From TrEMBL, chains A, B:
The lineage of its organism: Bacteria, Pseudomonadati, Pseudomonadota, Alphaproteobacteria, Hyphomicrobiales. It comes from Aquamicrobium aerolatum DSM 21857. This is Uncharacterized 2Fe-2 and 4Fe-4S clusters-containing protein, contains DUF4445 domain. Residues 6-110 form the 2Fe-2S ferredoxin-type domain. Residues 655-686 are annotated as: Disordered. InterPro entries: 2Fe-2S_ferredoxin-like_sf, 2Fe-2S_ferredoxin-type, Beta-grasp_dom_sf, Corrinoid_activation_enz, Raco-like_middle, Raco-like_middle_sf, RACo_C, RACo_linker. It comes from the Bacteria. Residues 675-686 have a biased composition (Basic and acidic residues). One of its GO terms (molecular function) is iron-sulfur cluster binding.
Amino acid sequence: MATTDPLVLFMPSGKRGRFAKGTVVLDAARELGVYVESVCGGRATCGRCQVIVQEGNFAKHGITSANDHLSARGAKEERYERVRGLADGRRLSCSSTIEGDLVIDVPQDTVINAQVVRKAALDRVIERNPAVQLCYVELDEPDMHKPLGDLDRLKKMLEQDWHYHDLQVAPHLLHEVQKILRKGEWGVTAAIHRDGPTARPTIIALWPGLHNEAYGIACDIGSTTIAMHLVSLLSGRIVASSGASNPQIRFGEDLMSRVSYVMMNPNGREAMTTAVREAANELIGKVCAEGDVARDDILDMVFVGNPIMHHLFLGIDPTELGQAPFALAVSGAVDVPASTLDLSANAGARVYLLPCIAGHVGADSAAAALCEGPHRQDEMMMVVDVGTNAEIVLGNRDRVVAASSPTGPAFEGAEISSGQRAAPGAIERVRIDKDTLEPRFKIIGVDTWSDEDGFAEASAQLGVTGICGSAIIEVIAEMYLSGVISEDGVIDGALADKTPRILQNGRTWSYLLHDGTPRITVTQNDVRAIQLGKAALYAGIKLLMEKLGIDHVDRISLAGAFGTFIDPTYAMVLGLIPDCDLDKVKAVGNAAGHGALMALLNRDHRREIEDTVTHIEKIETALEPNFQRIFINAMALPNKVDPFPFLAQQVTLPPRQIEQDAGDGTDSAAQRRRSREDRAARRSRT
Amino acid sequence: MATTDPLVLFMPSGKRGRFAKGTVVLDAARELGVYVESVCGGRATCGRCQVIVQEGNFAKHGITSANDHLSARGAKEERYERVRGLADGRRLSCSSTIEGDLVIDVPQDTVINAQVVRKAALDRVIERNPAVQLCYVELDEPDMHKPLGDLDRLKKMLEQDWHYHDLQVAPHLLHEVQKILRKGEWGVTAAIHRDGPTARPTIIALWPGLHNEAYGIACDIGSTTIAMHLVSLLSGRIVASSGASNPQIRFGEDLMSRVSYVMMNPNGREAMTTAVREAANELIGKVCAEGDVARDDILDMVFVGNPIMHHLFLGIDPTELGQAPFALAVSGAVDVPASTLDLSANAGARVYLLPCIAGHVGADSAAAALCEGPHRQDEMMMVVDVGTNAEIVLGNRDRVVAASSPTGPAFEGAEISSGQRAAPGAIERVRIDKDTLEPRFKIIGVDTWSDEDGFAEASAQLGVTGICGSAIIEVIAEMYLSGVISEDGVIDGALADKTPRILQNGRTWSYLLHDGTPRITVTQNDVRAIQLGKAALYAGIKLLMEKLGIDHVDRISLAGAFGTFIDPTYAMVLGLIPDCDLDKVKAVGNAAGHGALMALLNRDHRREIEDTVTHIEKIETALEPNFQRIFINAMALPNKVDPFPFLAQQVTLPPRQIEQDAGDGTDSAAQRRRSREDRAARRSRT
């Protein structure tokens, strides 16, 4: 390689190198580690290796790139253009050579056919390096004098053309090979699965001729909802997405009741495994129909879920997870043929499950951690998924810790007097006027607020039916901010003189949110239920922070459905989450699902999370000696002792009562905290 | 390692080395590569590591070995002796240390329990190195603070104690692990399958506590008969053997008719696959019952068969094998889970099939070659299995060639007027008096010859029913030696005047072997049928010899049932086999079955035959230009042109006619041959 050889820069990776004139662009990319897909092995028939030349003077790189620094289209590429078409500016990198300096763009969404583009779960590009590769080869016909078997000649050609050594073959292909080879007139496409540097590559599927499509499934098995994406393994594009209720709900609403069901019903485990696998298969059918994809083209799948979902899906009895020491049957990543899990896809399809972090922090949390990547950066990042159990992962590239906190069902609307699941008609947003103590709210399905014109008509059909999880957070936070409840969560009965919104309810008081049918109030018990739930979550977080020796968190990712709908500010006012710059608190949607997608599309992510999980330290919150003290302090809004300076800059918090720290015995801690918050508040006003 | 360290010699391998005092004997063996079995990993509970100290002065090795050069029995070994018993002189090598020079014998048939000793198929010891190893480990109990899953802790302990890295787990074990671990109170025995240096080790089975038995199956699927051995993988001992008819016979007597059946019946392939697998399963049941072994203890199996049997067993359509270019679907070795072949053994059991050499020379021939080992030595060795097709392997360590010759069913009694399969009542031996031309014979089931007293009574019940394959050889050879037929196989009608044994039969003559009910004669057609069959075989052999540039063979192994019963001398008189020192012509019984056994008990043999097969050159006899000439010359007894000097030393052959070589046009070849034989005959008389 001479210094006068052309310099080639690939975007978006930025990798560059010098290559002699005449070097095939695809080879140059490969040599630099730039991932460019190819199925037909350079025959210019699959079109997957398309690139674009960026013309112009790129002073920063010292490259003047021009279209004619790439060889002119040859016969092969012309033929492809005639038969399949090439969009403007697109060139086949397998059939073009480097003739001068070049800046080459590798499109991340190579359009081969007119598929609808769907947004990724999160709008991030996943660099592709899938575990399954399609490889087209052409074999010599059998020769009586060279009696190597058909399958053996196939393996030899795959070794020669694609450099796969020591290939295994999925057993079901043994009796199909001869037919397929002859049908393809000795040209066939092999799907080769190779996951990990020590794994032997395996031919898992075979088609006659050039087969140019390969799909994968990324699926998050939630306790309540199963979410699935159908993805092209070649282009990385999400082709279809769908979801369904987890049918195990009929055996038990929550996880522990499903464990009980197993313990009390001899066929319970089997029934629940069958139910979830059937649901997965139905979803596969749905996404295939929606994406117009054949099931037979699905070659790889990634599933995530919490440990009990994970075990039931694998057919493992989850009983041990229901009691200390909460022993996982398997914590490491799992790699099995899809057929062993009764999943209907290509007969050779594979399934990968991410590792579980601990008995209550599962593959879904690992996937969320993979997605958000606390371990990939320097800031202290917290990823939290709030459900009946909250899973918390906290750390940075130096150290990561994890815990599970039993928050209970309050955040989903259960145990709340007017609580309900999010559905049209449910109150989802609430504001309470600090002076009048009058509420205004918004319901799901209607755009106008309750105090705006047209609300009555707009809401007439749906009605105002109850309060959903995100609204619970808001209404209680607003009740605190407006003084309806104290920092200890007590509804102030004295306010009954000021406003008809405060109603007596036995020996306690309630706040009337909506006087309709039904009548929607927030009771003292409701407030307590939320306090208990949020205190459990905060205590788990605080214990992790103490383990890491930190007093604040730099970044918070709220994962899961709940995270998507709660207002981070209100969550912080409640003290559900610790103090943090609110600009760095984000809902990240189904991070677990996105993590599954990352693992599906890139083997390196699998190795990454497998390694990371071995370093994540699991804290068993209930056993920590500080837990009780921290929990009690966390009952108060936002917290009895911990300061919230970042929050105070954004929101005017009510003055703190000078109370005793539950464990401290002095009021100096409270005073110090109040001073800190007052200073912060003053700073924000100047 | 000092030169004053004790010197230890292991027998029978002869490996030796110096080890510091205090070195555990088992460790020393392993370091030298001496295979000593151990399941319990040094806990002195399995008893598999037993050795014997050979006392005395071994001047050749410079070792004076004594019992007290081994540490005295410790508590562990005492306990084993109390509980399980140790035969005199036996010591547990895992619990004894080296304290002085030693000669240590590693018994090849370690008796753990009182099993009946059966002879191996061939009385040879197979050095053991099985693909499945039993490994006992003890795990820590689960710990909430160290949330590694049960299966993951198992893998870790197997890595720590047994040095297995990167272990995979058979999927069916995922949901059984927890139960088994707890049942074993955290002590379990794992069966680990690892076949080949690039294969990842896989846990295929798991038992609670110490599980001290592992069995394997070696099976030869013949066209007519399926032969199976049940073997202990730990001791190498054959525990039971059995055989059964191949049920595919009902779909077609011979191989080609079975191929036709597939082509003409849409479910034919499936029916034949099902039939052979059911037969294999039944045989497994039989050998298990006979050996008092549980099916669940069978972990590894090796199957061999000719290519059509091989393919049908694997569920592969054999149609391509019925026509040029006779393309094998797979020629390399096959390694699949037993469950994929519907075989009932341990759920994690594996199956290995040896490679096939060519379209008509299958895994059975490869197994026979493995057994006899032409590639392992310097002499020119021929291994031949005579059936409807004869498979021939010829060569030495430098070069090996193989061919298949279609001999037809004559050697099994078909197409012979009085021919029948070997069964009680069939003539199996014949002698014809050179002067009187009177025959005497022996039938299967009766010890006396037909000319001895008591024969009539002894044979009254069975009757004399026909001539079996081995007797065909003898009677025709005797007819030649006595002059009844010419070297060209023509029955001499002129002899009808001399003896009532020569009968007219239309336009030809027959020889009357037995005038009973039925009347047993050898017709001219019978002779022709045998000539054609033996000429085909000889021609195949001769072509291989020409390829190797040799004019004689040093050693001949006659494999298969036919080989067991024919008299090599008569086979050579017939010219069925080439000239060779008769002391070096041996029947080797079911060499294919023994080769399967070798591959079952020692992974190195699998690698050996996989490598050897890649070097075996396949000759397609029917396409060779010389075939016709060689074939025609081979019609004569023993051969028209080839000399048989070795044979002439043992047997007085009739004088050769001075005929023309079919392709030579001169009589010099015949003359030269006759001179050579005459000289050889004179030498043998002096």
